[in-house]
Amino acid sequence: MPALRTEITEIVTGLGMFGYSNLHHAIGMRPPGFENVDDLVYDRLSVAYRSGNHSRAFATAWSNGVRFARSAEGLRGRPPWIVEWKGAHRPPGYEQIPADLRVDHVYLVSCKYGSNILTNSSPANLFDPHRETEDWFNAVAPESYQELYEECRRLVPDESLPERATDLTKDHRRLLKMSLPRNLTDNARGAYRQFAFDAAEGSSRRWGSSLNTRRSQEEMMWRLLRLQSAPYFVLGESAEGHPLAYRVQTPWDLRASHRFVSFRHWAEQDRGQPIVGWEATYADHRSGAIGIVAGHIEVRWSHGKFAQAPEAKVYLDTPHHAVPAYVPLEGRTEGEFALFD
């Protein structure tokens, strides 16, 4: 079952599209055109709404749904025939478009609240997809990875841990997760700082080897920005609390409006964890103006050092409205929007 906050942000975004005069009325009406939302879910929403504990999430999601319904990029002021909520549905395979709502079988909407993460994958899949590696950190920074492990191993009073990090089993990793102290020794912190830079540098180097042509660099930007063969919409709020409402263009659209100029990446130092920075330069076809889209990638364990395989989390640092492939939903229709009383 999705978390309550997820239900609020996704379902209330959909409710805002139906044209009801206010959120209280919309929750009470439970529109039959909203598929995959049963009475139990509406009951939870009603309780959460009356409690007032999630008032900001309710207000932001409702505003985003209304904005999409009014926008010339979206529904243009007409009520939808059907809104389908993905909910706890698990896709039968890999889904290219991260849609949480489908409107009138055509509009795909991703609800993104409280996060600037563009995508999340394994480091090997992102940096070196032609050579999948089981232990990424050992592949890109073997010496400092082993040195960090040795320092951490000294802090765990269990002699069952192997001498080599590459010999860790799931049970060993679970033991490290549970036993490593939150505050490491000076030696362990120093080993981690060196490891973080080496892992970032090794990841960036591998990335450079796989992005050795202009075409591959341009296609990587399509992947980082999550551009697909069909347009879709993002409605939500950034990690800083700024509203998000934009249409994600296709690579074809982006090429029609902007020329890809260059792409670069680098290992960042003293960031506390392995960070690979990246930026792409684009030129506007009409004005010739040059713009930069920048971000960074965290290559890290998500549940504690050595606990699980690392992840590569891609973040966007450039404001969304400044990304050439993201079209803000600013168009409005005229007249009264509330279609139901």
Largest sheet: 7 strands, mixed
Number of domains: 2
| Count of strand segments | 12
- Structure classification: alpha+beta
Q: Judging from the principal axes of the Cα atoms, what is the shape? A: globular
Overall helicity: 25-40%
Radius of gyration, taken over Cα atoms and rounded to an integer in Å: 23 Å
Strand order in the largest sheet: 1-2-3-4-6-7-12
Strand content: 15-25%
User: What is the number of helices?
Assistant: 11
Mean pLDDT equals 91
Straight-line N-to-C gap: 32 Å
Order of helices and strands: HHEHHEEEEHHHHHHEEHEEEEE
Low-pLDDT stretches are 333-341
Characteristic terms for this protein:
single chain, seven-stranded mixed β-sheet, globular, disordered C terminus, five-stranded antiparallel β-sheet, alpha+beta, 12 strands
Write up what this structure looks like.
With 341 residues, the chain is an alpha+beta fold. The chain has two domains: 4-113, no CATH class; 120-227 and 249-322, no CATH class. Helix content is 36%, strand content 21%. It has helices spanning 4-15, 23-29, 39-51, 55-70, 123-127, 136-140, 142-153, 170-179, 186-210, 214-224, 251-257, and strands at residues 34-35, 83-85, 101-103, 107-113, 117-121, 232-237, 243-248, 258-267, 275-284, 290-300, 311-316, 326-328. A hairpin with a 7-residue loop joins β8 and β9 (275-284). The chain starts with a helix and ends in a 13-residue tail after the last strand.
